[in-house]
User: Which sequence fits this backbone?
């Protein structure tokens, strides 16, 4: 956002010095609105802020090629043409909606409106959505990381390697708590509590709940035992974040240096990219195992595409539904606001909506048995 702000300020200064040249239609009031937003930018999550900047910059580059303004956007058909060009380039409707959101959000921030936005841009997005549906293009969902995968990883932990233990902690916490990758990154050691040798985790400041009250997650026996080992390793780290960085060469936990500031400014959290890489490594580990053996009964079922940082959240939800747990319970466990996401994540579970299937099977068996008795 600093880049966007600086670019606009430079344009404004140039305009003041060269009033005969029209390079911007933003007023001082609009720039002041953007400046005030920058002073309060923490209202948005870091990833949301990054997405806003990247996607709006992409649209700005397109407008410069067309000789048009991106802010303010005087003709919504320019945004429509941008969306069409990105769709033809291979972007999915979900990505295109993010582009439209970024343009709309930037106008909202500086106090502007986009003319005909709803009637033109929204209509084009709807048309593209229908085209994808007609062509059989589905929204790609994170590959489920299930208990079967977690069990395999837990059986192959290298307890002599800090990185192996830390990665196993990430996977087990993600599965037990149905955690988003951002939630794993933001965990503090003080969010852990222990009772009767079992740990619980208080998940606070989530995507759907910004309160500090949080949601309590009771961790499994295995995860609790693993945490004991992990907490011993990081005991002298001095940082508050639960998931620590590791050195690539030594594969040891990076020890945090002393700092006079409180909290320690040197204590930085791992990035979502780190969490995703842990899941990808687990997928590759299982894949290598499957390829190394010929006995199909000993192979671990694996999705065609790699795990991501959301995979344990999807996999745990699928496992719960497969075990007969009610969707409303799964919704609370995953901290979703509606049942729609639970149904989306678990729609491919084999016994989903099994009530009708079981009824039909029972009814047809009764008919078949009756026919056998009469024959």
Assistant:
């Amino acid at each position: 956002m600093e880049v966007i702000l600086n670019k606009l300020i430079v344009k404004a200064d140039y305009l003041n010095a060269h009033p005969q040249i029209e390079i911007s239609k933003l007023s001082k009031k609009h720039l002041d609105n953007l400046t005030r937003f920058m002073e309060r930018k923490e209202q948005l999550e870091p990833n949301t802020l990054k997405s806003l900047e990247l996607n709006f910059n992409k649209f700005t580059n397109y407008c410069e090629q067309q000789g048009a303004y991106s802010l303010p956007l005087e003709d919504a058909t320019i945004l429509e043409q941008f969306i069409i060009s990105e769709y033809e380039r291979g972007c999915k409707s979900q990505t295109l909606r993010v582009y439209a959101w970024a343009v709309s959000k930037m106008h909202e921030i500086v106090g502007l409106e986009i003319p005909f936005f709803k009637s033109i841009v929204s209509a084009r997005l709807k048309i593209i959505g229908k085209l994808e549906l007609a062509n059989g293009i589905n929204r790609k969902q994170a590959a489920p990381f299930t208990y079967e995968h977690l069990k395999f990883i837990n059986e192959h932990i290298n307890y002599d390697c800090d990185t192996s233990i830390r990665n196993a902690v990430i996977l087990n916490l993600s599965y037990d708590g149905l955690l988003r990758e951002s939630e794993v990154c933001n965990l503090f050691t003080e969010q852990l509590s222990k009772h009767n040798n079992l740990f619980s985790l208080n998940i606070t400041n989530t995507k759907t709940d910004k309160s500090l009250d949080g949601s309590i997650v009771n961790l499994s026996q295995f995860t609790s035992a693993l945490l004991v080992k992990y907490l011993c390793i990081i005991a002298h780290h001095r940082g508050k974040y639960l998931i620590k960085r590791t050195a690539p060469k030594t594969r040891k936990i990076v020890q945090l240096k002393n700092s006079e500031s409180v909290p320690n400014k040197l204590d930085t959290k791992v990035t979502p990219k780190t969490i995703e890489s842990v899941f990808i490594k687990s997928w590759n580990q299982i894949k290598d195992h499957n390829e190394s053996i010929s006995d199909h009964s000993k192979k671990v079922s694996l999705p065609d595409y790699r795990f991501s940082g959301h995979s344990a959240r999807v996999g745990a939800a699928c496992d719960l539904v497969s075990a007969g747990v009610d969707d409303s319970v799964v919704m609370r466990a995953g901290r979703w606001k509606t049942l729609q996401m639970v149904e989306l994540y678990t729609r491919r579970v084999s016994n989903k909506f099994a009530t009708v299937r079981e009824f039909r099977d029972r009814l047809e068996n009764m008919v078949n048995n009756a026919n056998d008795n009469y024959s």
Summary: The chain is about 55% helix and 5% strand. The domain at 147-281 is CATH 1.10.443.10 (hpI Integrase; Chain A). Strands lie at 192-195, 198-203, 215-218.
